[in-house]
Design goal:
It is a single chain. By secondary structure, the protein is α/β, with parallel strands linked by helices. The chain has two domains: 1-149 and 192-218 and 293-304, Vaccinia Virus protein VP39 (Rossmann fold), CATH 3.40.50; 150-187 and 221-288, no CATH class. The protein is built from ten helices and seven strands. The protein has helices at residues 26-35, 53-61, 75-87, 126-136, 150-153, 166-185, 197-203, 227-241, 249-258, 263-286; strands at residues 43-47, 67-72, 94-98, 111-117, 137-148, 207-213, 297-303. Strands 3-2-1-4-5-7-6 form a seven-stranded mixed β-sheet, sandwiched between helices. Helix 4 links the parallel strand 4 and strand 5. The N and C termini lie far apart (50 Å). 32% of the residues are buried.
């Protein structure tokens, strides 16, 4: 059911749950960052830091005690990032502050490493943000981007889609594409922006651009005994209770219409998506749901 009273949340707050801590295989990150020679960085800037997941994850895989400044536009997220830094004994080295990614309060050539995770997919002008990121990066310093192709991720099969008709699957894929295109048309970012970032960096004069594909999957199979599976099931059930299907229904309707869809078609596809999600929950509770859980998440690095 649709609740007309919406609680104002920090941007992307629905994606700040415990399951976010399982987005990467730590051995993959450690090897990639070693290959990029990042173990000697001293000053790090984490943009769109949210509650601190990405920067604090880097602290687990880099071998040096670097200093980090996290920037986010949401005061509530910054407050939570500070709390999490204290819990992880990082607060002496990690600072967090409210700021604008398009106008950073730092001089040119200031940081050894400037990084972000799932920030650029939310920006109307990612190239402008990249230009600012490069500005505050030291000469020969590194820009490191962790951004996805979420459209492809929505096409990953599972035990529910395995039983769906071809036209039903095509309808759901079309639903995702219209939503993403509509979000972009409203200048709210493009959820598959990761595909284009290496080209943007090249346009801006970055050098030694490297693109890696995360090896992380999110496999689901009974009896769901891993900590990651338990956390993901808990998150799915929480979303299910309030009909959260990637975005709130009001937002999805707005994106769908902006992407060229009609109100009538939206309701049809929304109901189909909701039915699919409820079937996933039903199969999880029955111990029959399964999926290899693939995803496309890029790790993109470049030198200034």
């Amino acid at each position: 059911m649709e609740n007309n009273k919406r609680v104002q949340k920090a941007h992307s707050e629905d994606y700040f749950g415990e399951y976010r801590d399982f987005w990467w295989n730590l051995d993959f990150l450690k090897l990639r960052l070693q290959a990029l020679e990042l173990d000697n960085v001293q000053d790090v800037l984490d943009l769109g830091c949210g509650v601190g997941h990405w920067g604090q994850l880097l602290a687990r895989v880099l071998n040096n005690n670097f200093n980090l400044i996290g920037i986010d536009k949401e005061e509530a997220s910054i407050a939570k990032a500070k709390e999490r830094a204290i819990e992880r004994n990082l607060n002496k080295r990690f600072q967090y502050q409210v700021g604008d990614v398009y106008s950073l309060p730092f001089p040119d050539n200031f940081f050894d490493l400037v990084t972000c995770q799932t920030l650029l997919i939310h920006l109307p002008d990612p190239k402008k943000a990249l230009k600012e990121m490069l500005r505050v990066t030291k000469t020969k310093g590194t820009v490191l981007l962790a951004e996805p192709n979420n459209f492809a991720n929505g096409a990953i099969g599972d035990s529910v889609t395995q039983k769906m008709r071809t036209d039903e699957i095509v309808n759901q894929i079309r639903f995702d594409l219209i939503l993403q295109q509509g979000k972009k048309a409203l200048n709210l970012g493009y959820n598959s922006e990761g595909d284009f970032l290496p080209g943007y960096l090249a346009e801006l004069g970055a050098e030694n651009i490297k693109v890696y594909l995360s090896d992380k999957t999110t496999p689901f199979f009974p009896p769901y005994e891993t900590e990651e599976q338990k956390v993901n099931i808990q998150q799915m059930k929480e979303w299910s209770k309030r009909d959260f299907l990637g975005w709130e229904k009001q937002d999805m309707k707005k994106y769908f219409v902006a992407g060229g869809g009609s109100f009538e078609e939206f309701e049809k596809l929304w109901n189909e998506r909701q039915k699919r999600f409820q079937q996933i929950i039903k199969e999880v509770e029955a111990g029959t749901y399964h999926s290899a859980g693939g995803a496309i998440q890029y790790l993109i690095a470049a030198k200034k």
